[in-house]
Amino acid sequence: MPDSTARNLSLQGIGVSPGIAIGKAYLFEQEDIDVIEKRFVPPEEIDAEINRFKEAVKKAQQHLRKIIKEVPDEYRDHVYILDTHMMLLKDKMIYDGTIELIEEKNLNAERALKKAVDNVKAMFKKMPDPYFRERSSDIVHASKLILENLLGTDHSKISDIDKRVIIVAHDLSPAETTQIQLEKIKAFVTELGSHTSHTGIMARSLDIPAVLGLGDATQLVETDDLIIVDGSAGIVIVDPDEDTLTRYHERKDLFEQFRARVTRTSHLPAETTDGYCLTVSANIELLEEVVSVIDHGGDGIGLYRTEFLYLNRPGLPSEQDLFDNYRDLAEIMGGRQVTVRTLDIGGDKFASGVSWAEEMNPALGLRAIRFCLRSPEIFKTQLRAILRAAYFGNIRIMFPMIAQVEEIIQAKHILNEVAESLHRDGLPFRENIQIGAMIEVPSAVVTADILAKEVDFFSIGTNDLIQYSLAIDRINKNVASLYQPLHPAVLRMIRRVVESAKEAGIEVSLCGEMAADPVNIPVLLGLGLDAISMNPISIPTIKNVVRTLSFEESKLFVQEVLEQTSTSSVLGLIQATYGKSFEMDSYLQSDAE
Q: Burial, 397: exposed, middle or buried (Cβ in 10 Å; 0-12, 13-18, 19+)?
């Protein structure tokens, strides 16, 4: 008999951590502190207002220290995020900016803090890179601790939830997320956040289903509502009917069986049915993610983004800071290969201690290798640290956003100067380190045969290559649907780079998120790539898919793929040729099928 009370309301958000949870919702109430009263502070009360602000910061630090001290073991790998928030509490642009606004505009501390935070958020919103754009949420979360002290409101206590529920909240900060009791909380849903938010990263590493960016979820869901959370499809179903419940219980069982199976074999090589081994590595930006790489069976680190070491700190990192980080990475990974990308910062990514010129279009401005060649001392400091760390492990260097061969020649010249300086200083270092170019702009594709003569390997960065080639901003909702990894132009560019690499006898890998989608694997395998890399959590599934394919058959298949004239025809061919022949957990398929 159908349930007449069922709403069966389906909400679409961003699936940031796979898995299915079914249970009662718990609306996590948070005080609304977005609307701040503006109050004029008389000149004679300015010092007292500044002291009130400083005291609020001090209390926030004490609160965060207490959380860090009490972090459960399962969250210990994420303490670095809370350490970052601790630094943000005294960030120059927020801390000094608030005090300046109190002094110069006679604003009350709450209003001054909100204005300072809004100024920093506006700067971050200009960044094309989703990961760095999302760092504005860290600023909001850290400043909220100060604001709660100024307003006299209580800090949210998520640890008080003592029943088996699914949390529904406006937002969850990393500090709040670390207080979740995993034996109590089945999943969580928030109105804010994205795939690259720290809260999303934590959910994935903890294997707890999560859907973020769900708009008005707290208005549509009430405590004790029965809900379904599909953390892969990004779907939340409120008050499901019996048919929907039955279907999702089956999907949940299938997913858990699938995950257990692929995880058991994730440490094995990704070897095709005819004996071809594809290296499957991970992309990371933080040292703490190495545990996840090893746990998920990563063959190495295909891309280590080094920008985080330059962000959220009062000045530039020293050579010793960088060396310690890179050496730890190399030693933890043992003999497995680690590809360190040199600083990809500038224009859209900001670092403390560097003065930036205003640019009309940062994505096409002074960034990545261009910035490093213009800032040789910063570049040399990083190169010295990498060369020294490479002495202790299997590290190689990759230069980002190469557009012309002169940039590689200049970078190699600086690298030689650095090596000579280390010789003079008597410091041990890797003398014959491998050098690679990141292929992520069309000019690099066209001149790949020229670039191949100057490097030891190529790494195709499809995230930016697709964006630059198709003139698509992948985080612009108006055109995001046009961001198509299987566009014929993209596939032909990958083929050209692979062919140039093979002719020169160098290795070629692909490090964009295109590699994390199982649908793309028959094509990428058939194009002849030596390696691919992706977010760690995707590795077991991708390895499992590779093991079901034939390398020789994939090469023949790609010849037909390259004759297609549209993305839809490529997808149609993949479906017609492979369909469900390579095993995929059915929970990945949406209700729209």
A: buried
Across 362-476, the runs of DSSP E, i.e. the strands, are: 395-399, 435-439, 457-460
Sign of the Cα pseudo-torsion (80, 191, 589, 530, in order): negative
304: helix, strand or coil: strand
For tokens 């920008």, what's the residue? 307
CB 586 within 8 A of CB 254: yes
pLDDT value for 67: 78
Q: Is 277 a catalytic residue?
A: no
Chain centroid offset of residue 555 CA: 31
Phi–psi pair at 228, nearest 5 degrees: -115, 130
Active site residue 511: yes
Q: Which residues contact 215 (CB under 8 A, 6 or more apart)?
A: 11, 13, 191
85, 170, 198, 296: which one is catalytic? 198
In the chain, what are the domains?
9-30+157-250 (3.50.30.10), 43-151 (1.10.274.10), 262-588 (3.20.20.60)
- What is the value of pTM for the model shown? 0.73
Residues near 118 by beta carbon (within 8 Å), at least 6 away in sequence? none
User: Nearest CA to 156 among 190, 194, 127?
Assistant: 190
Half-sphere exposure of 147 (CA within 13 A, CB side): 23
User: Is the Cβ–Cβ distance between 533 and 524 less than 8 Å?
Assistant: no
Residue of 85, 195, 372, 511 with catalytic role: 511
**For 162-208, how does the pLDDT look when each residue is reduced to its tens digit (9 = 90+)?**
889 999 988 888 778 777 888 889 999 999 887 767 778 778 777 78
Tell me the β-bridge partners of 459: 438, 509
